[in-house]
């Protein structure tokens, strides 16, 4: 058996490189998680099983360690001006406690990363992808001259967990000093538990309701153990740990892009269906190119595909129409919720209409597929 | 968990169990754990000739696609329909209910294959 995998695993690498460990590493190991190298971090791929963790998240509550993601703090008089120069979203109007999904683009409009920027009382906090953190820090440094802004990478001093699922809010409101039920989506608040501050943001990457919590390194392990115990222990409890495997299948059902799959420096946010996250009324790096694309349309578009086969295509496999290549797969999985194979793909815009019949070339085997609107899954509100 | 001692193993994580003139073929618990939840198994048709070291099928999981390599020469005489219908059988029971194909062989040269003890030692399985 020889594996083509999107996650490289320690066992098959046969050597453990100098992987970074999150403050919750000890917890993952104690839970019997299978650890994998993800963007240079030793992260849990799964605890019990990807499909089981996926389904548990959809019906109950899961906690994901996402401490590998970058957390970068911006302060100084020009912080807003600087961020607005780099971000596709206009953050000038953001209120304290507001979070915005945005892209960071290069001069050609290519996506360098997708991020969430939150305005807190005294600073702005950016959460970025683990794989792009160092690249972004270098990019910020390059563009900093002329701006009175301080940039502090807090990734190694903090931990971050995502609590996701329909039961998360009631579960948290039973234990937290301040209720999070009143926190609207893409808003955040700072709370204290026994004097220890932490930031709670109503956001996530699963298509479920939930929050993402940032706290200091030293409190993370205690906090996660406390939360998991708070609703009882064992299989009957509402909250279970879930790994990066389930996080990937959940975000794919929710039609959310993953950097390195749907997004990279050769694709622009307009093609990726993210024009809603590109401001039309401000100048930023890449704005001219993006304005042109928004006006004239893009040659290709990101679409969903429903595949009429139990087989799962992999990234970069060709999408065909009439036997000719018209696109490529970016992500695919056997969807646990839909019970069928789903994929995201870039296709030429003339083939992007929902209902268009295409084929996926799985190493010579054509799989019939139909273009569909994203997302594949939307939670009942 | 130690691998069953009544069969032979390959470095690419297939196992074979000798049954007179035929062998039963599957993949190991280690391989299954590596794949995670299996979603599809592509197996050869009955009559297909397998050659040692050559790919003869594919296994897909929520995480990865893997090729299966033949540990023996021979002709496929039976295919596990249960696994085709419910690929999670491979996860649940890789050594018994989750076998993949039966192959009719001549005398099997086991000198290039590993015993359970050798396989477990090589991949640090206890």
What does this entry look like structurally?
The complex is a heterodimer of chains A (381) and B (126). With 381 residues, chain A is α+β, with helices and mostly antiparallel strands. Among the domains of chain A are: 3-66 and 156-253, Probable tRNA modification gtpase trme, domain 1 (Gyrase A, domain 2, 2-Layer Sandwich), CATH 3.30.1360; 299-372, Elongation Factor Tu (Ef-tu), domain 3, CATH 2.40.30.110. Chain A is built from nine helices and 21 strands. Chain A has helices at residues 10-13, 25-30, 50-59, 79-86, 133-143, 168-173, 217-230, 244-253, 287-296, and strands at residues 2-5, 8-9, 34-38, 41-46, 61-65, 70-75, 99-105, 111-119, 124-128, 150-153, 158-164, 188-193, 196-201, 210-216, 239-241, 300-307, 318-321, 324-335, 340-348, 357-362, 365-372. Chain A has a six-stranded mixed sheet, with helices on both faces. Chain A has a six-stranded antiparallel β-barrel with strand order 16-19-18-17-20-21. A five-stranded antiparallel sheet of chain A has the order 7-8-9-6-10, with helices on one face. In chain A, a hairpin with a 4-residue loop joins strand 18 and strand 19 (340-348). In chain A, helix 3 (50-59) crosses helix 8. With 126 residues, chain B is α+β, with helices and mostly antiparallel strands. Helix content of chain B is 19%, strand content 35%. Chain B is built from four helices and nine strands. Chain B has helices at residues 29-35, 81-85, 88-92, 116-122; strands at 8-9, 14-19, 22-27, 38-42, 49-50, 55-61, 64-69, 74-79, 101-104. In chain B, strand 6 and strand 7 (64-69) form a beta hairpin. The A-B interface holds A 1-7, 9, 11-12, 34, 45-46, 49-51, 245, 249, 310-312, 314, 333-334 and B 12-14, 27, 31, 33-37, 39-40, 42, 59-60, 62-69, 87, 91, 123.
